[in-house]
Known about the structure:
The structure holds 2 protein chains of 2 kinds.
Chain A: E1 4-5, E2 10-14, E3 19-21, E4 24-25, E5 32-39, E6 46-52, E7 60-61, E8 64-69, E9 74-79, E10 88-96, E11 103-104, E12 108-113
Parallel strand pairs in A: 2-12
Antiparallel strand pairs in A: 1-4, 3-9, 5-6, 5-10, 7-8, 8-9, 10-11, 10-12
Chain B: E1 4-7, E2 10-13, E3 18-25, E4 31-37, E5 44-50, E6 53-57, E7 64-70, E8 73-79, E9 87-94, E10 103-104, E11 108-112
Parallel strand pairs in B: 2-11
Antiparallel strand pairs in B: 1-3, 3-8, 4-5, 4-9, 5-6, 7-8, 9-10, 9-11
Amino acid sequence: AQKITQTQPGMFVQEKEAVTLDCTYDTSDQSYGLFWYKQPSSGEMIFLIYQGSYDEQNATEGRYSLNFQKARKSANLVISASQLGDSAMYFCAMREINTDKLIFGTGTRLQVFP
Amino acid sequence: ETGVTQTPRHLVMGMTNKKSLKCEQHLGHNAMYWYKQSAKKPLELMFVYSLEERVENNSVPSRFSPECPNSSHLFLHLHTLQPEDSALYLCASSPGDSPGELFFGEGSRLTVL
């Protein structure tokens, strides 16, 4: 069974607007971590934001925030004030406790237009 | 140099060739990873090394052979590959403690003819 689901293969957003990228996950563990990565055309995976399963507050990092809804098992990424440089692939990932594995979703391609 | 460095960035090889991908990390991390990224598929974890010992082999065909001579270097030796092995191969490292985000290199784009 797929553990990380990203249902949006592609998203468009106008510059300076906010955009939400969806991510749902499946795990039976009580302790886990959720991550978002950005992959520009250069190929490198760039870490954006992390949310622990026991964190009560939603994680924020600059223009990035993670809308964590534990009961719904969703961890959506919100990018505020989009910039042209935000155009890239975005991957949601999960790491279960006591494991070295980071499991990725299929990604969402975000395109920011002027 | 800083971060995670992968060489070569691009590689084209025939099915009978033998080549190697190299990964080097300068972050003092204990764990290193190989991932395969094919078009329209999730990143696939191939191998995990923790403190230079292989802790994960995710049912990878034997034509892929990893080597971790020390905590800073990771290799992926390739031999008798198939065209479906063409993909972006990403190396990553992490501090080794949970949860610990992974730090990725820019990848090696492999094309098998």
